[in-house]
């Protein structure tokens, strides 16, 4: 990856900081927040989705965004609100993941370019495995291309 | 509920039909498909999201859509593509759920009005429990209202 945008809310802050600390080899760009003061998750989903859309705007939605080596990670308590907000943006395909298998499928079938996680829904250990799986899985194309083009 | 719109793709067809058969007291409106021929999940997510948006268009996004007694259920293999597509629509808050707890939170915190399920991600028994929990849980409002208004 050339860049991984990451953002959270207060509930997701710890897991976000764990990711950055435990994976120093990855090209993180932290879009906030920086403390545990209560914030509204849509603000941070919008910030990340806007930036990722700008950075990848020269790529059609059907193209594997991973070729451009930029993706996003959004973390809140359940991950649900982050995924809803991020998917308001046409160039974003945000996948809420709770297992390695789900993360793998979201890349292979949906060409997801944003990983959403619920800090209260998965353990830090599982979250780390999901992250690695998401980043290392490739879009399968084929029959999935025409479906992703319709997203 | 006054109405529950439901749609799937070929992978979600069986679970959709199970829901309708096993819960005859619920006011289902089946938007397709009717057989297991391969289809593109975004077509059915769009169909349902469009209809639900029209039916609920007189309600602001912050109001509990359950008061209007109309919601949606979308089922594909993983549920992921359905959730991505449905959330393209501003009045839709589609929650991908894999447990009763996740379904409860999606109603309480995110005021979700569409339940997304992965037919290959949950057992039929868990899916049934998720459905019941989703339909019986209420939006908590309070601090969550300002966040949902930003979705």
Structure commentary:
- Two copies of one chain form a homodimer.
- Helix content of chain A is 40%, strand content 16%.
- The first copy, chain A, has a five-stranded parallel sheet, with helices on both faces.
- Chain A contains six helices and five strands; from the N terminus they run βαβαβαβαβαα.
- Chain A has 151 residues and is an alpha/beta fold.
- Chain A is globular and about 45 Å long.
- Chain A starts with a strand and ends with a helix.
Count of runs of 4 or more consecutive helical residues of chain A: 6
The residue-averaged pLDDT of chain A reads 93
Q: Order of SSEs of chain A, N→C?
A: EHEHEHEHEHH
* DSSP strand count of chain A: 5
Estimate the helix proportion of chain A, in percent: 40-55%
- The strand line-up of the biggest sheet of chain A is 2-1-3-5-4
Q: Give the end-to-end Cα distance of chain A, rounded to a whole number of Å.
A: 23 Å
Specify the biggest β-sheet of chain A: 5 strands, parallel
Q: What coarse outline of chain A follows from CA principal-axis ratios?
A: globular
Radius of gyration of chain A: 14 Å
* Biggest chain-to-chain interface with counts: A-B, 34 and 34 residues
Oligomer: homodimer
Q: Low-confidence runs of chain A (pLDDT<50, min 5 residues)?
A: none
SS-based class of chain A: alpha/beta
Instruction: Kindly estimate the percentage of residues of chain A that lie in beta strands according to DSSP.
Output: 15-25%
